[in-house]
Amino acid sequence: MKTESLAGNKYFLLFTDDFSRMSWVYFLRQKSESFKYFRKFKALVEKQSGKALKFLRTDRGGEFTSKDFDAFCDERGIRRQLTASYTPEQNGVAERKNRTVVEMARSMLKQKGMPDSFWAEGVATVVYILNLSPTKVVWNETPYEAWFGNKPSPPGIENLKRTTRSEHGHVPRRRFPIEGEDTSSLVMFAGDPISVNEAMAKEEWRVAMQEDLSAIQRNQTWELVDLPNGKNLITLKWIFKTKFLADGSIQKHKARLVVRGFTQQKGIDYEETFSPVARFETVRIILAVATQEQWKIHQFDVKLTFLNEELKEEVYVTQPPSFESNTKPNKVLRLRKALYGLKQAPRAWYSKIDDFFHKNGFEKSQHEPTLYIKRQGTQDYGIWFSKTEDFRLKGYTDSDWAGSVDDMRSTSGNCFTLGTAVISWSSKKQASVALSSTEAEYVAAAAASCQAVWLRRILKDVGHEQVKLTIIKCDNKSAVLLARNLIYHGRTKHIEIKHHYIRELIANGEVQLEECQSDEQIADVLTKSLPRVKHEELTTQLGVSTLE
């Protein structure tokens, strides 16, 4: 955390039991204290459960891979499960719990206007609440009940009361009646139904199901037919979701009829499934250009998105559960239009919206299939775009030679700014081991040049063609010379041919690799850990700032 807690702590360490999802939190002044608190945690949970700790899954942070930590686990037979680099999904339970805790704690402090120094109290409260809240992982129990085997007694809400103290004399309320006092009501939420039978038992869900079914029927999505011989029959399923307002009150009960797409057979029920998705770089380019040109930005949502396009394939599904026809119970439904869950549904919708845009005078970008252009005349941190006279595409490339302790491969990093802020960035481990820092920087520069070409073409499509060549800054002189000239052949002849594409781009006048000082290399933030001051300095140069 950027701000120290009231007790002077800057970090929190969260342990989660994989089975029960019970969590324990400790607050640290330094990351190096992790080992000390792990020993306390081990003693606590073994005493509570009467069982020995057998497995510990963490990332490869230095606080978890010290010699003392490893020796302690080895001596006590604790099996370590270290996740691979750049794969946080291997420790999804811990990663998701950390994010949930931070987001809830931040919301609590923001809602009550509390100073950031109360973050530790917020985190402790969130962990307490989550331990007493139902979870899908543990059926019909809270993590507390799954861990201890009994319900909390007393009920477990006594710590949530507000603490007050009296500084003034008390005036009896009967002498000063207050009209229109604020009141609150207790709302109980039992969770979303997980079966049709459970939903049909409640009026609000029956209404929601009927509304969704009526919308599908108005759209003429299907027709009742007999199932032809040899055709695959796909089942349907109801999905239920309760939507809430910002104050926590229930907004509506949403029911959606979906297809069990995993039962479809390729070549019979569908052919092509690919549907393009907008890249974040494209969105940021549009935001940068919109800021420069002072365009208005609008955002909208299309209801029943996948139910608007005619299907080309013959797809047969069962009748909706609990809404079968009384007169034709043996009939099946032939889909005229797509339903949610169909593998080809996204592609069908893309075809529909693509046709709509073309009929309305939009042109699709040749380089970005989700960008349509119509020419008419002439979370704590974000990217701040502002209008500037120097609206040019600029690039930075850097490499951390042999930075990976696991396989000695280097990390390539590059970023591009347009105007006042960054629009594209990448940090990726190289595919092969570089034999020198020059080779590592050269490979990174080659990747950056390819990205520069794509960005230049997108800018041309939106009316901001980069007439001048795009300059890419590199802090390795040898790599710059290697890109400009055929030198060091004996030491670089093994480099893959594809990386020499940068030489062609330089010769054609599209990009130019220029040397810069290391302290001017903005892409440094993408390849290695930096001191806090340096990190904040570079992110500021990228146009990244707090949203306050």
TrEMBL record:
Record-annotated Integrase catalytic domain positions: 1-151
Keywords noted in UniProt: DNA integration, DNA recombination, DNA-directed DNA polymerase, Endonuclease, Hydrolase, Kinase, Magnesium, Metal-binding, Multifunctional enzyme, Nuclease, Nucleotidyltransferase, Receptor, RNA-directed DNA polymerase, Transferase
Gene3D superfamilies associated with the record: Ribonuclease H-like superfamily/Ribonuclease H
Keyword hit for Magnesium: yes
InterPro entries in alphabetical order: DNA/RNA_pol_sf (IPR043502), Integrase_cat-core (IPR001584), Retrotran_Ty1/copia-like (IPR039537), RNaseH-like_sf (IPR012337), RNaseH_sf (IPR036397), RVT_2 (IPR013103)
PROSITE patterns in UniProt: INTEGRASE
Alphabetical list of Pfam families matching this protein: rve (PF00665), RVT_2 (PF07727)
Annotated GO biological process: DNA integration; DNA recombination
Molecular function (Gene Ontology), one example: nucleic acid binding
Protein name: Cysteine-rich RLK (Receptor-like protein kinase) 8
Record organism: Tanacetum cinerariifolium
